[in-house]
Amino acid sequence: MKRRDRPRHPDILTPREWEVLALLRDGLANPEIAERLGVSRDAVKYHVSEILSKLGVTSREEAALWRPSERPWWAAAFAALSGAASRLSPLGRILAVGASISALAGLALLAYAAATLEEEVEPSPAGRLTPSLAPVEQDTQPATPTQAAIRTVVPADLMLGAETALPAGVTLLLETGCFQCDGQTTGLIRVSRDASGQMDREVLASVGGHFLYGTEQTDEGYFVGGIPFPARMVRTAKGVEESQRSMAGLAVSSDGRDIIAGLCYDCAQLGPVGAAVNDQVILYRSDDGGDSWREFGRPGPAHVVAALSPGRVILARETTNAGPLEFYIYPDGEVIPRPETATPVVFAPTVLADGTVVWPDRDGTLRRPDGSLVLRVPERSGEFGPYTISGIAQQTFGDRLIAVSWTASTPPPQGRLSIFSPEGIHIETFTISDSLRHMAWLSASVLAANVAVSPDQLRTQTPQFFPGLLPALIDVESRQIHPITDPFLKPGAEAGRNYVLGVQQR
Prior knowledge:
single chain; alpha+beta; six-stranded antiparallel sheet
């Protein structure tokens, strides 16, 4: 499928970008520029980002003071090569950086780069998801920056694009819970759309009620798959009472096939992994994406499901010396060493698609248990730690890219989404209004994740108790976020949080 973006303009800036730059020099803010030009605010954000990138400046003020004579002779050539590289795959862009530097040594290669810009390049179809989306209000199609450019410019904004439906052939595994809090998990559901476009919703695990939009219906049950989680009666000072039944954590493998659910009696909150554990914990496992389940083990009290490594389950448990939580392989008991630099309590380890166990740290790094570096979030002038890494996802296909969601401590905190090669090489970074806590790759350039949206940002009417958080498709190539309103704002959808834990594709 051909790209729909316009050919790049031979000037330093496009005519529209010159208009935006002129209004920047007049001191206008983005909303005023949008009104003056008759375009969306997101379009203005994109134009400003492109202007900063092309002029090699880091702020609106610097852009306003810029004059053509200040532009280095090699900048236009680099911009041309960057444009060509932006049409490559993310891994290809890494290689294109070195090639573009070498190309500056000869005018012949510059001529070749200019000629390249006249052609439309067919993007690689491997793994690419192309959902059917309504047009987005903007006057140009964003291009993905090169690795070199992203180190010297403000990260590109991820813009709110058209609402969309869950693509056919895609199934989301979602954690459910109350919408007004970030409290205990109530279950695991599997959501897809059938051939007629109707929602197919299946509850895989449940420890209570599931309230649905637009109906009086409430699903309530205590089970995993077809295995009941029966009530337990205990004698207390008040007499014989029923134990409270809760979730003790959920974990889903990168391909969505391996799932672990922990259930427990009389549970209490434990540690940073956000799950309830105290009394007896029972583990249930599915290795076929939730179609069938079996009891996997009973690790005892004060344990919680933390992550899945290929063929292994990672649990957390309290230590007797009231220190940080201890993470170990179940059932072997092998303790996962915590790197000396890793923050003692705040973050739990996670597992990449290739099986590497990594520890997020407040210094903005991911490290292996032996302390060796996997990757580091990009630093920017004026931005400082400690950093909060809230989400990590690696592709199970193609270039096996790693997506990391993070925020810096610089006020006001702003979400970032950075893309890395499997070797930890930084490729590109985007700005997002809020950090992404849950995400999974659908294709070479599209992530499924939960994003914060308000009712006034959506065309679809929101229900009365809308939580302000929706599953969405994040296309890092077009730099757009597409909220999945169908089926998640339709009658019968879960009226609460729908955290993306995994993706299955047919």
